Amino acid sequence: MILVDKLPCSVLITDVGGTILGLNRQMTAVTGLDASDLQGQSIDRILPPASRIFLQTHVFPTLLRNGTISECFFQLIGADRQAVPVLANCRSDIYEGSESYVWTFFVALERTRFEAELIGARSRAVESALAVTTSERFLRSMADALPGLVAFWSNDLICKFSNRHYADWFGRNADEMAGVHIRDVLGEELFHLNDKHIQAALAGEPQQFERNMLRRDGSIAFTIAHYTPFFVKGKVEGFIAQASDVTELKLSEVALKKSQEFLNRTGNLAGVGGWEFDIPTGSLTWSDVIRDIHGLPAGFTPDLNEAIGFYTAESRPVLEAAVNEAFSTGKSFDLELSIHRVDGVQRFVRAVGSAEFSDGRPVRLSGALQDVTERRKLSAQLAEQHELMRVTLQSIGDAVITTDATGRITWLNPVAERMTGWRQDESQGKALEEIFRIVDETTRAVAPNPVAACLAEGRIVGLADHTILISKDGTEFGIEDSAAPIVRNDGVVLGVVLVFHDVSEQRRLSKEMKYRATHDALTGLKNRTEFEARLKLLLGKSREDRSCHALLYLDLDQFKIVNDTCGHAVGDILLRQVSKLFRGVVRNCDTLARLGGDEFGIILENCSVELAGKLAQRICDAMDDFRFVHDGRKFRVGASIGLVPIDARWGDIAALQKAADSACYAAKEAGRNRFHAWLETDVAMQSRQFEVQWTNRIERALDDGGFVLHAQTIRALAADKPGLHAELLLRMKNDDGSLAVPGAFLPAAERFHLISRIDRWVLREATRWIASVIVVQDIRLISLNLSGRSTGDRAFHAWAFDVLERAGRDICSRICIEITETEAITNLADAAAFIERVRSMGIKVALDDFGAGASSFGYLKSLRVDFMKIDGRFIRDLVTDKLNDVMVRCFVDIAKVVGVQTVAEFVETSETLDRLRIIGVDYAQGFLLGKPEPLARIFDGVPAILEPI
Amino acid sequence: MTVLKRNNVTVHGAQGPFMVYAHGFGCDHTMWKRVAQQFSTTHRVVLFDYVGSGRSDIRDFDDERYGTLNGYVQDLLDVCDALELTSGVSFVGHSVSCSVGLLASVKRPGLFDRLILLGPSPSFLNHRPEYEGGFEREDLEGLLALMDQNYMGWANYLAPVVAGSDGAGTVSAELSDSFCSTDPVTARVFAQTTFFADNRADLQYVTTPSLILQHRNDALAPLSVGTYMHERLVGSELEILDVAGHCAHMTHPDLVVAAIRRYLASDDKQR
Question: Which of the four CATH numbers 3.40.50.1820, 3.40.50.970, 3.40.630.30, 3.30.505.50 does domain B3-124+199-270 have?
Answer without folding.
Answer: 3.40.50.1820
